[in-house]
Automatic annotation (TrEMBL):
Keywords: Hydrolase, Nucleotide metabolism. Signal peptide: none annotated. The gene is dcd. GO terms for molecular function: dCTP deaminase activity. Pfam families: DCD. InterPro entries: dCTP_deaminase (IPR011962), dUTPase-like_sf (IPR036157), dUTPase_trimeric (IPR033704). It comes from the Bacteria. Gene3D superfamilies: 2.70.40.10. This is dCTP deaminase. Its EC number is 3.5.4.13.
Amino acid sequence: MILTGPEITAAVRDGRLRISPFEPEQVNPNSYNVRLGETLMTYTEPVIDAHRLNPTTAHRIGEEGFVLQPGELYLGHTLEEVGSDCLVPLLFGRSSVGRLGLFVEITAPIGDIGFHGQWTLMLSPVRPLRVYRGMKIGQIMFFLSVGPVDLYRGKYQAALGPQPSGYWRDQAQAGAVA
């Protein structure tokens, strides 16, 4: 079952859900709006290698905004830290942002129970698009979990700012990379 807006507010108040900073006006009928943080990250090599740590460059979004370019993958982050030890979060782009031609979090919308931190956003524009820190970029819905809970203890726990892929670490631990 999905939490309604009033239940999201109640869950923040009673501690089942942490959203920091929490702004009541960002509560929707069945989701919570999250805003774009101030840092974007891009990979610097022409080929991204899934079995290696890939170099990145960080870009700060200034007051004038930042123009995203088609054909580039931008890793952004939510301004808010969001997490719960009992609710399952799903993050999607806002429809108003999609209508600007920006794909947000298209391949990995589900969060793990027990993750607490800023969410890394995968941003991909169809056309050049100026974005601004603090703009409402996505919305998170929360679902009730059923059954025993095994809390998230992964590599992205307590993330602040955009996090590049840690897929290569998983492969190295599995022995796929010599």
